[in-house]
Amino acid sequence: MLRALLIVTLAGAACAALDAWQAVDARWLAILIALLPAAMACEFLLRVMASWFTPPEVRARPLATASSTIAHCLTRPYATPAELGEALHRRYGIDLRQNWVISSTVRLLPGACVGFVAAAWFLSGVSVLQPDQRAVYERFGAPVTVWQPGLHVGLPWPFGRTRVLENGAVHQIVISAVSGDAGDTGAAAPLVAADARTPEQLDRMWDVAHPWETAQVIAGGKAHQQNFEVVNADVRIDYRIGQNDAAARASQYRFTDAPSLIRSIASREVLRYLASHTLDVLVETRQTVIADAIRQAVARQLDALGSGIEVLAVVIESVHPPAGASAAWHNVQASQIRAVASVAQARGLAAKVVGSAHESATTGIDAASASAAETLSAARARQISFAADIAAQSAGGQAFPFEYYLHALQKGLQSANLTVIDDRLVGGSRATIDLRAYNAGDAAGAKRLY
Question: 221: which of 92, 104, 207, 367 is 20 to 30 A away, CA to CA?
Fold first, then answer.
């Protein structure tokens, strides 16, 4: 029990020293050490309760309530097998010296241990690679070959060493230059289930600042004056280690931290591209064009370093003005859209008026042409009829004009209301009106009509 008290006191002193000198929070160690006296107290309580409910005549000897099995574990262990055998023989009556199984095991144990160690050492040269793994095999510190997935056998450690790397795994990192903790810079976006609600940090609205965006001051111009503008961009890069053996070797010896290398190069290329364009050009340019330009620049830098990293794609989530200017930018875009719509509407109305005028003009021209053609045809018909009448008069003499006259007179009197006055009925100064009805034929045959 004194040893338990000593251990608890020393552990408390160590916690205090760590907190005072190194500012290390070692409360977990104090809590862990405090479990030792708590366990001993529980054991004492159980022993006391057992002594209350156990009749004295049933017990072979009194139960020692002040003894602790947990504290007994803190005593000095047996130094030699002879002491251990003597203690077992004294307490339990077991004599290990006359047991041939134990003696044989003790005699063969060193050889078995040596055999196990030798087998484990030889097995260190056997490597089993999964389908998503490959490895660079080193023999005496020099790379020899690249092992593909499967079972491979080489020299045991330390003569042969296997450097396991991934096989075709695609990674995505976020290129971000916002201020914050170093661990948060460039961190991957959290995974969201397909049927889950979109978290707030993944909101794509321009009035919400994204935690993975990079803010860049770029050159701008307005009314032939130079100024500066701010643009926010959320750029991500998908990469993997090349599939050939040279890329696998380069990934093991050219760099130590692939995400840091790609992030540094990609950040420089992204900032260079953003700084070389104005805000209007960046917003109006298609994101695929920007992504392809950045991907080619990053790939050239990585190839120049011989890193063996293959840039698969550059994903641009958004390129937009700062969140504070989103409302004004939306208004500008809305005004531009309304202006374009108004111009298109005016052009449509003008086209409609021109079409209507063209249609009216075409209709008038067609009607005038038809009327002229009809008049010309009627004139030609009269000309032909007049020529025929002249020829008939030349052939028939005065009979034809008189007959023509009577025909025209009969045709004209068919629908006329006539009043016939006979001069023979005049008597003195009065005239008599003849109210008798005459048909057209009789009227046409009268000699004299007044």
Answer: 207
